């Protein structure tokens, strides 16, 4: 039996994590022995992991506060030793992932399923495997580029670099031209049946009102996801006199900042922050428009899921979204400008012909995983 180890930071609710779950479900019946290495215990998506997958959690050292509050002298000494060891690898060696113990088990394949954090480095330095793959999900390298020289060194050691779209492949090739021949595309799996079934569940924490327009955005609250742009657009729409409610599902670093901006601009009745939802699909299904305002995207699972739900989509005109929405045939692509974005939304809402054209195109479109499955099969052949 072939042994595979997959490394990811956590199982919180996010695009990479959702993609990982669908990938694990797909390979679960292939007869492999699969270990999943995480740096954080628990997470919203833990229950979605197939039962055959063995989870290994690597523990961070205790915090300084925890050490101070520890009453047992022996435990305090143990925690302090681990704390000092982690700081040594972080500040002196400058390779904090070496703090975590090497995994002695020998694998046929190691997959770092995230380009962020420790997984990519740990896969090279602390894992024994015949072949090693890096999954790259981010839609840009500029925002990930602080460690370029280190990345270049470690990327060279992977047998292949897998990314999720043609646009991403071109982006990575522009930064890592020496490795262009080992970068290939495996799009994210979109579990259409799960999306459609989950969308039938009731919404219990709010009611989308009749007689106004209802918008939904599902996104992590981080700079690159452009929630600030969405609030600017909402401000423009309110100034135009549009009656609407815009529901935001997600959480993240910029949540408090966005919440404060909404309050300052008196948008509390228009922009509703519902937090993270394990099942966002009933909200998406009931929306008049699904809107995504990202500055950067790699593939956008939520855009593909919105297509599966036959929603009218308005989003930013990024290369990868241009591909997904077939140059505007399946949705409205907007410039990264609040005024023009708001203008396109307002125009669409009062253009029945344009709405019908988009609805027909989306309903005729089939969200397919055929290419993804084929690409994964090629990968699995390499494993065998």
Plain-language structure description:
- The protein has 384 residues and is an alpha/beta fold.
- The protein folds into 3 domains: 3-58 and 100-187 and 370-383, Rossmann fold; 61-99, no CATH class; 192-364, Glycogen Phosphorylase B (Rossmann fold).
- Helix content is 40%, strand content 17%.
- It has 15 helices and 13 strands.
- Strands 3-2-1-4-5-6-7 form a 7-stranded parallel beta sheet, with helices on both faces.
- Helix 12 links the parallel strand 12 (313-316) and strand 13.
List key phrases describing it:
alpha/beta, Rossmann fold, six-stranded parallel beta sheet
Task: Please give the structural blueprint.
Blueprint (H helix, E strand, L loop, with lengths): L2 E5 L7 H13 L5 E6 L15 E4 L6 H6 L3 H20 L13 E7 L6 H7 L2 E9 L11 H8 L4 E4 L2 H10 L7 E3 L6 H7 L14 E6 L8 H13 L4 E6 L5 H10 L6 E5 L5 H6 L2 E4 L8 H8 L4 E4 L2 H6 L7 E3 L3 H12 L2 H13 L5 H14 L1
Parallel strand pairs: 1-2, 1-4, 2-3, 4-5, 5-6, 6-7, 8-9, 8-11, 9-10, 11-12, 12-13
Helix pairs in contact: 8-13
